[in-house]
Write a structure and sequence with these properties.
heterotrimer; B: about 800 residues; alpha/beta; 21 helices; about 15% strand; globular; C: alpha+beta; 3-stranded antiparallel beta sheet; about 25% helix
Chain lengths: ~260, ~800, ~180
């Protein structure tokens, strides 16, 4: 494991969304066109996208304890899995690790969408503009000492430190949080052999759509996926409209494959 | 703020009420969180909605909009009944022991001296009893039936937990938890802070809502202490500074009252009428210095023309014929009395109450000069939806202004820190700073008066206005800042502080409270020293400069007992060594010790006022319902504040619960700012909140057939607006007097200019104001809602 | 956060040469880029939004702002910002900003652009005419020196020096209809 990691402490998040904007500011990302709210409560846009690499999701308020309602607001970005599906299935080896962070080499990316299909967290997305896949690179491609999102966070809900310290802090914090929220949990210690975004939650991870025990794609299957995408990308001759068709076909092939 | 942002970390209990600080002052939560993490502080949020602040609270209590005084009166009663007060502090530092005129009465919502015809009080019977030396009589045993403590106990005995529940809708158990936790800070070494904003002030009882915070903090002994105080969270970057500079009809810079035609016909009458006197040797009575501050200001403004013989040109100051606060100003505009107006970075069509009426009123103007970064809803009102531009006579000038980082100058934050900022780039095109714009207009006007003469040209021709360095074209903010600080008129040397100001014309000072901000040592507001003071409380005395005299916590004499020992040794703000003070710059001058002088130096009696004679609507805060309310006032038979006046022209402008059954309130979101021009034009922010929306409970949504994301109409007698409906569990109906009261919450950032637009919530808000300040009642009014067809 | 100002100025220590700023393409952030702040001139400012008074660092290259973010030395915000503060760059570079004087004549349906000197002359003329026509020197024997026909509004977003000058200017004219955001 590389030593750095993010700590998302949802018990300290006030939902100011500075992370979402600071990322766009530092990385020169444009705004998305939205209407009303795309997700629960104030969530906007709905999810991560090729131009939104940090996202704040507002969950519905849980009033099961009327004296102490829970409103969870969760920062999400690429989790930078130690064993990353996206990296395993990329047919062009465009996805690699830089200083331990999972990044996409834009020169090599062909926008095939393999990574999009295989990330269980739905992180990377292919842009409609340049037809390449984009996501958080922890500011290593646009370097600074502390990534823009964590640097901007006012309350300490999103911090950046050595991964070991992050885990230690998270475990200590969990003990305190459990006093008020007995189901509180930490996510990211072990999934995909360790994520680089550790999240403290007031309830169990499944409540927030986080899969507790995901299995990394196995190497044989990853190879067959790479071959399929490569072939389809080749036959689409790099023409965006054809590529689109190819992606869709690839996705269905892969999904069929997965079901089998 | 009596304290400052960083000081929030020193609190044991943080009460957020009438504010959603997590949303509107997000960085405050950096320090709230620190208090929680490092001191184990408890955060209490009392709010009609389960807000972002509430989501991080240890304790949340709901209440009906407009019932704050019922709730807080209950907390006062709880503290007094259970003797949870800091008794030594209360006896020494408040007027609890002072005896009130035996004629004082409170009867069913009315204090003695009420004139129903004028809707105002004669406060003669609210005065202290004086001894033969003219000093207020005291009973330190607190037993005299006419002492403030006993009067107060009697007054609030009616605010029982049961009545609190019936009026506010807050369940009794939740209320009691809040009262118990808050009053736990009556112990000398436990401190609570109160963070409040417009949710407190924007009511017909707004001033009394703030007053009762002061009462509570005095009873708990929390004023002057680190982690304590009452802290108004300002909504704009320089609303503190603009108020200090008196961009308000009723004050001159530094909180000197504006002269009134009826009361202050000459300088002598002004000084006599506005300078408080005391015979109490323990009172510092700082406002006895008022003549020095006014005369130094007149000298700074009128220079050589201001002489002792001509009362330093006192007559040149305009005198108002009547109070002309915002609502009155716009009514007079509506009546066609105003011909021209300047709008300096302001958007009243979105920001003020009763926006449709405001827009119609603006059509009566002959000319409007608007200065802004962009088109705003108010500068394009002539092409607003429904208006016929071809029939609107107003000539409009829209002047392009520089942004905050395109010019140089200072701004004062809520903690009174005046901080200097620098120019990073030129403004776009031909845009200029507001200072340059005012300067250009002034110089042109002066030239016109020189050439043509005109009505009372003296102030225009003789005003001191030397703000341009030799050889330069543009105004230097440094020269203005130096005048604000003050200087010796003869030697032109900068004053070190306001202590040396004189009332003989030998000193000039634009705004006395800024004395010390720009001295012979230089621009103190530009300082960036990161060293903390010896008491390690996060005061950072070398960072920027704070008024008054760089004092970071005001009323800090109250942070020690009469012996000069801090109430809490681990959190000491100041301490008395027997001959000198250590720590923060002590209030009222450093030579007098804590036994010799009283701590609340701005009051002529020198102690904190639990009972305050100077208020328009009574010496004790009392609950009254908002102008528009669906429920009865169960504390007295006055429905609304008997001293809050409605202008005659607006009498037909209000609605009742029969027609408009839902309580409405307005608020903000973190992604937008005020009337929206500074955020609705920024794509990164409009991505997050692109549209006007309201928030309603699932039960109201169900009753009205509304689903999340539906378009709805919200309407009352003043307007009818469209919005998206956010149906949320964070809003819940409250049971008040046996029935469920539903609420419609709205953001007020939207209007019809800017990058994204929507209907303005303020088309619905009423033009009725607080009895003391006339701040409009934005926070509790009535509407109806339906799904858009 | 332990980062100091000095560290902040050399965030990455990247040595690659060549100016980098991708104002047009969002893809700039995806490439391994040289220091975004290389060759910039930095100045400090205070956030123009709420009353907390957070510090920010504005980086400009060739007189044009390229980045704005929190000032880590500022004792209140210590580098952090809310979403509004983080978005401030979009005020520095925004096509909706006014760059010319706009004039709308009576009963007009459109803006017209006019030069500054013309605008200032026209405004001063109107101020003078209105002031002269509505000025009240005495009222019931009391000298009031009031300009009854002009109002001035706004100022909470202005600098202290501007507020002071505006306050003085308004009173010089005799304006008592003087209000701003503090009342609302």
């Amino acid at each position: 494991m590389s030593e750095k990691a993010f700590l998302v402490d949802t018990t300290k998040c006030s939902g100011c969304r500075s992370c979402q904007v600071a990322c766009k500011q530092w990385n020169n990302l444009p705004a998305e066109k939205t209407k009303f709210f795309a997700g629960p409560e104030l969530t906007n846009p709905k999810e991560l996208s090729a131009i939104t690499w940090n996202h704040v999701k507002f969950f519905e308020v849980d009033r099961s304890n009327p004296d102490h309602p829970i409103w969870t607001i969760m920062h999400k970005k690429c989790y930078h899995c130690e064993v990353a599906n996206c990296l395993r299935v990329c047919p062009e080896k465009a996805i690699y690790k830089k200083d331990g962070w999972v990044v996409i080499d834009q020169e090599k990316c062909i926008g095939c969408g393999a990574c999009v299909n295989e990330c269980i967290y739905m992180v990377p997305q292919v842009s409609d503009i340049d037809h390449k896949s984009h996501k958080c690179h922890a500011c290593v491609m646009n370097p600074r000492e502390i990534p823009a999102c964590a640097f901007a966070c006012p309350t300490g809900a999103l911090t950046y430190d050595n991964r070991l310290s992050v885990i230690k802090t998270a475990e200590k914090r969990l003990k305190e949080v459990k006093k008020d929220f007995p189901n509180a949990s930490i996510y990211g210690r072990d999934q995909f052999e360790g994520l680089k975004v550790i999240t403290i939650l007031r309830d169990r991870p499944e409540k927030y759509g986080l899969e507790l025990d995901p299995k990394p794609i196995d190497l044989v299957k990853a190879e067959s996926i790479r071959e399929t995408y490569k072939m389809l990308a080749f036959f689409s001759l790099g023409i965006p409209s054809l590529k689109r068709v190819a992606y869709r076909m690839a996705k269905s092939t892969v999904e069929k494959d997965r079901r089998a | 703020m009596t304290n400052h942002w960083i000081d929030l970390k020193n609190a044991d209990v943080i009460l957020i009420m009438g504010s959603n600080a997590a949303e509107n002052h997000p960085i405050s939560f950096r320090w709230v969180q620190k208090a929680k993490d490092e001191r184990g502080a408890k955060l209490v949020v009392v709010d009609p909605r389960f807000t972002k602040s509430a989501s991080l609270a240890d304790l949340y209590a709901p209440l009906r909009p407009g019932s704050d005084l019922a709730f807080l009166g209950g907390v006062v009663n709880y503290a007094l009944e259970n003797e949870r007060i800091q008794k030594e502090y209360v006896v020494e530092y408040t007027n609890a022991t002072y005896l009130i005129n035996p004629d004082f009465r409170f009867n069913d919502g009315l204090f003695s001296g009420y004139d129903a015809g004028k809707k105002s009080y004669d406060n003669k019977s609210w005065a202290y009893q004086l001894d033969d030396k003219g000093i207020p009589k005291q009973d330190k045993t607190l037993k005299d039936p006419n002492c403030v403590y006993q009067l107060m106990k009697k007054h609030y005995a009616r605010y029982t937990p049961e009545k609190v529940e019936q009026s506010t809708g807050c369940p009794k158990e939740s209320f009691l938890k809040v009262a118990e936790l808050f009053t736990s800070t009556h112990k000398p070494d436990r401190v609570a802070t109160i963070m409040y904003a417009m949710g407190t002030t924007q009511h017909t009882v707004g001033t009394q809502n703030v007053r009762i915070y002061a009462v509570l903090q005095l009873l708990m002994g929390n004023m002057g202490l680190a982690g304590g105080g009452i802290n108004a969270l300002r909504g704009e970057s320089n609303v503190q500074g603009s108020t200090d500079a008196a961009l308000l009809w009723h004050i001159l810079p530094g909180y000197l009252p504006s002269p009134l035609a009826k009361k202050h016909q000459n300088l002598e009458a002004y000084i006599k009428g506005t300078t408080p006197k005391t015979n109490d040797p323990r009172s510092i009575n700082w406002w006895s210095n008022r003549p020095k501050y006014l005369i130094s200001m007149l000298k700074a403004w009128y220079g050589d023309a201001a002489t002792k013989e001509n009362d330093f040109c006192y007559d040149w100051l305009p005198k108002a014929h009547k109070p002309v606060p915002y609502i009155t100003l716009f009514e007079d505009m509506y009546a066609g009395q105003l011909k021209g107006a300047f709008y300096m970075g302001t958007n009243p069509i979105v920001g003020g109450p009763n926006a449709n009426r405001t827009a119609k009123g603006m059509e009566k103007l002959d000319w409007l000069v608007a200065v802004d970064l962009w088109e705003t809803d108010s500068s394009i009102y002539w092409k607003r939806p429904g208006a016929n531009a071809a029939q609107i006579k107003t000539e409009v000038f829209l002047l392009p202004a520089a942004a905050s980082f395109e010019k140089e100058g200072s701004v004062s934050n809520s903690g009174r820190w005046a901080q200097w900022r620098y120019k990073a780039q030129n403004p776009p095109g031909v845009a200029k700073s507001d200072l340059d714009i005012v300067d250009l207009i002034y110089r042109e006007l002066k030239a016109l008066y020189q050439k043509e003469g005109g009505s009372f040209a003296d102030p225009i021709l003789k005003m001191v206005w030397n703000y341009t360095e030799p050889g330069e074209h543009e105004v230097s903010p440094h020269l203005v800042a130096k005048e604000i600080n003050g200087y010796n008129y003869k030697s032109k040397k900068q004053m070190a502080s306001f202590v040396d100001l004189k009332d003989d014309g030998s000193t000039a000072c634009g705004n006395w409270i800024y004395g010390g901000s720009y001295t012979e040592k230089g621009n103190m507001m530009a300082r960036r020293g990161t060293k903390d003071a010896s008491n390690k409380l996060g005061m950072y005395p070398e960072w920027s400069w704070c008024w008054p005299v760089n004092r970071r916590i005001i009323y800090n004499r109250a942070a020690v007992n009469r012996q000069g020992e801090p109430w809490d040794k681990d959190r000491w703000v100041v301490k008395w060594t027997g001959s000198a003070w250590k720590g923060d710059i002590v209030d009222g001058g450093g030579t007098a010790g804590p036994g010799a002088k009283n701590p609340f130096i701005m009051n002529e009696e020198g102690v904190g006022r639990l009972f305050a004679k100077g208020l328009a609507d009574g010496p004790f805060p009392e609950h009254y319902e908002p102008m528009e309310t669906p429920v009865a006032n169960i504390f007295n038979s006055q429905r609304m504040n008997p001293a809050a006046k409605v202008l005659d022209t607006l009498k037909g402008d209000f609605g009742d619960a029969g027609r408009f059954p839902y309580v409405a309130t307005s608020y903000r979101v973190v992604e937008h700012w005020q009337a929206g021009a500074m955020t609705r034009n920024l794509p990164w922010l409009t991505e997050l909140v692109p549209d006007m929306f309201c928030e309603i409970s699932p039960s109201l949504a169900k009753a009205k057939g509304i689903e999340n994301g539906d378009r709805v109409r919200i309407f009352n007698s003043r307007g009818n607006i469209g919005a998206y409906a956010l149906v949320t569990e964070r809003v819940q109906p409250l049971k008040v007097q046996g029935r469920m009261v539903e609420m419609v919450g709205m953001i007020w950032h939207f209007g019809h200019g800017c990058g994204v637009s929507g209907d303005s919530c303020n088309q619905l808000t009423p033009s009725v104001g607080d009895a003391n300040t006339n701040i409009p009642e934005f926070k509790a009014f009535l509407v109806d809602i339906r799904k858009e067809a | 956060m332990s980062i100091t100002r000095r560290d902040f100025l050399r965030l990455s220590g990247v040595t690659a040469a060549g100016a980098f700023f991708g104002g047009v393409s969002f893809l700039s952030g995806c490439k391994s880029a040289p220091d975004k702040l290389q060759g910039t001139r930095e100045s400090t400012t205070i956030c123009p939004y709420c009353g907390v008074g957070c510090g920010l660092i504005v980086s400009a290259r060739n007189g044009k702002v390229v980045n704005i973010e929190g000032d880590p030395d500022h004792p209140i915000n210590q580098g952090s910002l809310c979403s509004k503060g983080s978005a401030l760059y979009q005020i520095a570079d925004n096509p909706r900003r006014l760059s010319k004087v706009q004039y709308r004549k009576p009963y007009g349906t459109e803006w017209e652009e006019i030069p500054w000197d013309q605008a200032v002359k026209m405004i001063a003329r109107r101020v003078k005419d209105t002031r002269d026509a509505t000025f009240i020197e005495k009222e019931g024997g009391v000298t009031v020196n009031r300009c009854a026909g002009i109002a001035s509004l706004g100022g909470a977003a202005l600098d202290n020096e501007e507020c002071y000058a505006l306050s003085k200017f308004s009173r010089m004219l005799g304006i008592t209809y003087l209000e701003h955001q503090a009342r609302i």
